[in-house]
Amino acid sequence: xxxxxxxxxxxxxxxxxxxxxxxxxxxxxxxxxxxxxxxxxxxxxxxxxxxxxxxxxxxxxxxxxxxxxxxxxxxxxxxxxxxxxxxxxxxxxxxxxxxxxxxxxxxxxxxxxxxxxxxxxxxxxxxxxxxxxxxxxxxxxxxxxxxxxxxxxxxxxxxxxxxxxxxxxxxxxxxxxxxxxxxxxxxxxxxxxxxxxxxxxxxxxxxxxxxxxxxxxxxxxxxxxxxxxxxxxxxxxxxxxxxxxxxxxxxxxxxxxxxxxxxxxxxxxxxxxxxxxxxxxxxxxxxxxxxxxxxxxxxxxxxxxxxxxxxxxxxxxxxxxxxxxxxxxxxxxxxxxxxxxxxxxxxxxxxxxxxxxxxxxxxxxxxxxxxxxxxxxxxxxxxxxxxxxxxxxxxxxxxxxxxxxxxxxxxxxxxxxxxxxxxxxxxxxxxxxxxxxxxxxxxxxxxxxxxxxxxxxxxxxxxxxxxxxxxxxxxxxx
Length: 478
Description:
Elements: H1 12-34, H2 40-47, H3 55-79, H4 81-100, H5 105-133, H6 136-167, H7 172-175, H8 177-191, H9 205-227, H10 232-255, H11 269-299, H12 304-309, H13 312-320, H14 322-332, H15 334-350, H16 361-387, H17 391-427, H18 437-453, H19 455-458
Helix pairs in contact: 1-5, 1-6, 1-8, 3-4, 3-5, 3-9, 3-17, 4-5, 4-8, 9-10, 9-17, 11-16, 11-17, 11-18, 13-16, 14-15, 14-16, 15-16, 15-18, 17-18
Membrane topology: Multi-pass membrane protein
Domain Major facilitator superfamily (MFS) profile: 18-466
Main location: membrane
């Protein structure tokens, strides 16, 4: 497949600057997925909203990224990596600036969607630029360098968000992106090599629209009752619409010569089990970064900065336990490790239903660290399982579908958590926004049950499947 590139080979300086550009872009994309979590109560106060009804700010960003991931690679092939990457930075930066100047919740949600459009293209297009510019023997080290900031972003996001709220205001969690974005646009214009594929196939617009409508419909169905007050009949119609769209995409993909995501991928046993397991297990994992800071601030009286600091044990334990997962998989196999660990993650989530005002600080820190450790091992095991048998033929399409599922499950996690919180706040006696601890308890219990139940998916694996020497894209191991 011929690829049009720059006339001369890029210099070492150009390659180095480009790596930093892609790495910083990935960092900002992943940082903004979690940095708002500890700032939600402060945002709610500023915008005149209730803290427990702010989930749309998080959902808008992650759902938009899920929607835009399938089209980002095609745009880079057709328009060129430099143009699309610069446009992504520009849109992300303008969206950040508008978010900081939002005066209503609806405005903030719309601007978060704009921010998500830019953010969704930063990693796929940047990674494509690295693949096409670096020689084969330097590809894996380059991609590993790009991946590290993306792993750090979600870990420090809640703490950084709480710190910015303390020393300034919630607006600065978006304003810090502006100078970085301006510098990124200028550097991209000078240092990002341009490449495109003149033989890019026609975009599967019909399949893309079916997927988009299905994802948006299910998100509105789960969140619309509490967020927008839509009626039960409308929720039912949206659920049926989403199911119909996904079924229609399956029928379409069978006939379409070049669908966005080929159904042949699901013939790979480890990929299909890993993808479905990721989708359902990550619902709980996506809910926790939203629920924990809210619990600490709304029900336990923590400040935004204190709530952010309490997320550090989760991050530290998560980073420390990553290597343990590989050793356990090699010894016991994917099935035993994932079934056991998924149940442990569910129990760790459910344990927050026992949280009380008088709980000792050391016990709370241990609880957070335990959740962070088992949750990190879950990600490592699920992700390597999903990608291990793709091979070169299905790597591109499989990676894109996997990235879409990651973003979609993050969005669904916050959607489910917000819906459960609102439901229990209304159902449980004597529960209000000010005395919401019982509603949080019930929500954590439900989220834990959902996660533990997904262990049944991993139980379908063969006990003999173990870690292999084959390397997967390190940027996906988050």
